[in-house]
Amino acid sequence: MNRRSFVKNAGVGFGAIPLLRKDWLSQFIQENPYKMKMLRNDVGIFTEKGGTIAYYISKNNIAVVDAEFPEQSKHLIDALQKDPGKPFGILINTHHHGDHTSGNISFKGIVPHVAAHTNSLLNQQRVAREKNTEDQQLYPDITYGDTWEYKKMKENIKTYYWGPAHTNGDSVIFFPHANIAHVGDLVFNRRWAFIDRSAGASIKNWIIVLDKMQGQFDNDTLFVFGHAFDPEKITGSKADIKAMQVYLENLLAFVNSQIKAGKTKDEIIKATSIPGVTEWQGDGIDHGLRAAYEEEIQNIM
């Protein structure tokens, strides 16, 4: 992307930022290859490489959700600390994958607490041991179960966990005053989803999780997605949550029908489309088909 188009795209939403904050963020937007966009009530998003980051700039400190990779999280930290005198209060991880948590290490010594679901911590530790990267991690020191609330800011940040989905440790991070929910990789907006069976993923329960999400939040809730095929559609509405749910339902139904028709795993994962799914794009359809096959076969046996 050239600088002209980048600045044009990155500038969306700046009307909601106080004048002083607008000045320093505008300068960083012009100088760096990432995007920062304010959404509502001092909640914004950062995108560069990896899963979408959300941040909340309160009167006295800053909360961050997810951390991308070390280089990218340093870019975020540098930008947010250009607003003098506001320390980081909390970093929350939606789940354990490296494109959301390997940047945690950049916050070492500058954020007092990192929070995540209990299973997310266990997954982070397991993967780090397997890859021999334990010295490169900043693990959560606060873990939670089905719900948790961080009450030390104007926004009483809330978390929700409804069981295994993309992994067995995905939680939704909610900013009530702004009515913004960061759903992490529970939604790949119009992009073939990564389904991590090695970390306890369940497509069947993922469908239920998305249903509960639609019941938990209202029609004005703005959702932040971990990934999107179109980078400009990294946020959305309940309609996008429903679309993700329908995609997963069709994925399971198709694979189940192919198994009943006697198709082998290798035959099923060669499919280039899924009946009823017309909007999903990109690479990785085979990965979803493989995960669905393994889950359905396990249920049959």
Q: How many helix segments?
A: 9
Q: What's the helix-strand series?
A: HHEEEEHEHEHEEEEEEHEEEHHH
> Beta-strand percentage?
15-25%
Main sheet characteristics = 7 strands, mixed
Helical content band: 25-40%
**Class, according to the CATH hierarchy?**
Alpha Beta
What is the SS-derived class? alpha/beta
Number of domains: 1
Number of E strands? 15
| Oligomeric state of the chains in view | single chain
Please state the CA-atom Rg, rounded to the nearest Å.
Answer: 19 Å
- Ranges where pLDDT stays below 50 over 5 or more residues in a row are 1-22, 24-30
Give the overall pLDDT as a whole number. Answer: 90
- Give the name of the CATH superfamily: Ribonuclease Z/Hydroxyacylglutathione hydrolase-like
Q: What is the 3D shape?
A: globular
- CATH architecture type: 4-Layer Sandwich
CATH topology: Metallo-beta-lactamase, Chain A
Please provide a written account of the structure.
This protein is α/β, with parallel strands linked by helices and 301 residues long. Helices cover 36% and strands 19% of the residues. It contains 9 helices and 15 strands. It has a 7-stranded mixed sheet. Strands 8-9-10-11-13-15 form a 6-stranded mixed sheet. Helix 6 packs antiparallel against helix 7 and helix 7 crosses helix 9. The protein starts with a helix and ends with a helix.
In a few lines, what is going on in this structure?
The chain is α/β, with parallel strands linked by helices.
Secondary-structure blueprint of this entry?
Elements: H1 3-10, H2 19-31, E1 35-40, E2 43-47, E3 53-57, E4 62-65, H3 70-80, E5 88-92, H4 98-101, E6 114-117, H5 118-131, E7 142-144, E8 147-150, E9 157-160, E10 172-175, E11 180-182, E12 188-189, H6 203-216, E13 222-224, E14 227-228, E15 235-236, H7 238-260, H8 265-268, H9 285-300
Parallel strand pairs: 4-5, 5-6, 6-7, 11-13, 12-14
Antiparallel strand pairs: 1-2, 2-3, 3-4, 8-9, 9-10, 10-11, 13-15
